Amino acid sequence: MKITVDFEECLKDSPRFRATIEEVEGDVCELESKLDKLVKLCIGMIDAGKAYNAANKQFVNGIRELAQQSTKDEVIESSLTKFAESLQEMINYHTILFDQAQRSIKTQLQTFVKDDLRKFKEAKKQFDKVSEEKEAALIKNAQAPRNKQHEVEEATNILTATRKCFRHIVLDYVLQINVLQSKRRSEILKSMLSFMYAHLTFFHQGYDLFSELQPLMKQLGGQLDQLVVDAAKEKRDMEQKHSTIQQKDFSNDDTKLEYNVDADNGIAMEGYLFKRASNAFKTWNRRWFSIQNNQLVYQKKFKDNPTVVVEDLRLCTVKHCEDIERRFCFEVVSPTKSCMMQADSEKLRQAWIKAVQNSIATAFRDKGDDGEKLDRKSSTSTGSLDSGGEPKERSLKGESALQKVLAIPGNACCCDCGQPDPRWASINLGITLCIQCSGIHRSLGVHFSKVRSLTLDTWEPELLKLMCELGNKVINQIYEARREELGARKPQPGDPRHEVEAYIKAKYVDRRFIRRPSDEELRNKVISLSKQEKRLSSSSEHLPPRPPPPTPKLRPGSNVSGQSAAAGGAEARRDSLFCPDELDSLFSYFDTSSKLRSMKSADSGIQNSADGSREMLANTPSNNSLADADAAESPPMPMPMPATLPPPSPCKEMVFYEPKEYSPGLQLYWASCARSLPDMAEALAHGAEVNWVNTDEEKRTPLIMAVQGGSLVTCEFLLQNAANVNQQDAQGRGPLHHATMLGHTGQVCLFLKRGANQNAADIDEKTPLTIAVEAANADIVTLLRLAKMNEEMREAEGPYSQSGQYNTNSPTEMQYRKCMQEFISLQLDESE
């Protein structure tokens, strides 16, 4: 060990020792200032690091917020989320590094300065003091006179004591100097080495972290190159489109409006119009009007919910208005109100009048594409049953629907490209799709494929049941039957979009890979399906009769006795598909609204209709309690009911007649009755018309045959493929008539939900409600009466609401929708 100051030399107190001491003291003083400076710099570094971490955290939070805002772009969302997580880890590593600097530099060196250097300074003070005392004793001893013995002795004693004390102090001081010089080396190196190891760990952790992130960054780099190319191409296309549009003549811009009933977004026409308010001041306001889903609506702002001006354009007329001061005005008149509007020019006025007239004509047109429009909206009689804002009690959303659909064989991969874990579906085809193929399907149009998300959208039970009846395996056996024979290559995950798009169009639009059956094969298929239908009918006839439900629990104050119902209702599943609480809530609201209508409406018949509906429903017995109801002492009911339940009067028994020719439409006809969804899908793929009419059997359609088969899911499949819910047979009966005659409650509810006209009469002038009353079917009577009352409420309350039309989120409408969905769910649970 190297000794800075020699112990022997310190006892001599030689000039060499004094010089060494001065050098050491100067060195220690400089060391103290350097260490103080280093500690302060370390504190500043740590504070700056904490500020950097705080700013970095805010930056990472900004990345997370950007990722959340980009939920529609899965690539950006997942990449930004991963980057934010990695940067957060780096912030954590930085925090550990600054903590280590706090411990190794600041704390350790501060301790060395405060403890060891403080001891050195105290030892130096004692040394300086005893050195001065020794110097004074030497001077006094030298000045003592020879002839004064006592002064000499005193000076000698003081000098001896001072020298003795000096030796102890100087030895301690030299020891402190040597220990300090030795310790400074270890303390400084120890703290700095610890700090450098902290840096080593920090950079190792960062290297490992970004090594794991490197494959993703390389993948994104490859995608980025393609995105840059695509962006440049899109830019060129937009510049070309911009140049083309800029060269057009916009002098007659108001003539560009066209009425398009088949628009992808369902909006046939839209534009700005001035609307005259119905208040006392008759103010005019500019609003954005549109014709969509057989309705005339307007908005003030884009985010506002559309305000319905006319609920059903079929009930309206449109005319010019020349008797007011303003120019270019026209009026839309409905049975309950009128709306005055003003266009910006005469050409625009003519365009809007023509659009309204075309919309009215389109609504009445009896074609197959009406099924799609009715699927997007509800009719006037049933209200908006498919409103997105209404929560549905028995609907499924997210993982529940996803798990059920993916459990079907073949559905775990995309039907068209094989991408695993699909999250989209085509509801009219019954297949699952990846996000790229779903976008291509959506571009085909809803007449080919209706796309819905398995995780984001709400799934009604009947639609989910439909998906589970088909699946990718079944559909591919139909649409890819000749793919291998033709040598066509099926796309794989990661293939270019244009290749996948070409394949999907060839598969579903051109139907290039379908195996066309021969006449003999088609004949055998039709005969087999007709026999299958007979076997289903005969097997259902031999089944033991289903016990009827117990007597409905009537509302308090009803005229019909409910004691027998109370006796047997404890063991029953439910007295009726409508629970008494739901009816009480609905009827109480109808009562209150009826009183309001009686004060505001000039037509008193509306009130009487609502009251009569309620009384009839309250007094309608169920199938097994008609005799009890007749035996009860009660006043005569407003509508007489038979004492015993007559058998239902369905269409004539299905008999297979040898047709003149066999066609895919005939296959669809018998497959619908046989409840065979794969055969129905095959018939549609071979070109069957969904509204095909069998002239040999009273002009029945596949949808009517699906009603005969008794399957609600079969009806849903045809409706999703644009079947006309109001098409009638030779007896003037539509699907709603047949479902009512057969007592198929779930199908009745489904047809009302899809816009069936409950006021249509057959050739015997019987409506579905008349048939249900004659058959004493309490549930169907309840359904049809509630639909009728809901329609009357909408017509009556519309003119008196604040916005000028009926509020679709009213308690009545919400209760009605809930009951309708409950009907369908219960029927699926029990009959399917």
Concise structural overview:
The chain is of the alpha+beta class and 832 residues long.
Structure, explained:
- The protein folds into 4 domains: 7-242, Substrate Binding Domain Of Dnak, Chain:A, Domain 2; 261-365, PH-domain like; 396-509, Annexin V, domain 1; 516-567 and 576-832, Alpha Horseshoe (Serine Threonine Protein Phosphatase 5, Tetratricopeptide repeat).
- Mean pLDDT is 75; it is low at 366-394, 539-575, 585-652 and 799-807.
- With 832 residues, it is α+β, with helices and mostly antiparallel strands.
- The strands form 3 sheets. A 7-stranded antiparallel sheet has the order 4-3-2-1-7-6-5, with helices on one face. The chain has a 3-stranded antiparallel sheet with strand order 10-9-11.
- It has helices at residues 7-12, 15-69, 74-143, 149-246, 346-364, 370-376, 399-406, 435-444, 461-469, 472-479, 483-486, 497-509, 519-542, 563-568, 580-600, 605-618, 626-631, 664-673, 677-685, 702-709, 712-720, 735-742, 745-753, 768-774, 778-797, 811-831, and strands at 267-276, 284-292, 295-299, 307-310, 317-321, 329-333, 338-342, 396-397, 424-426, 431-433, 451-453, 458-459.
- β5 and β6 (329-333) form a beta hairpin.
- The protein starts with 6 loop residues before the first helix and ends with a helix.
- 58% of the residues lie in helices and 7% in strands.
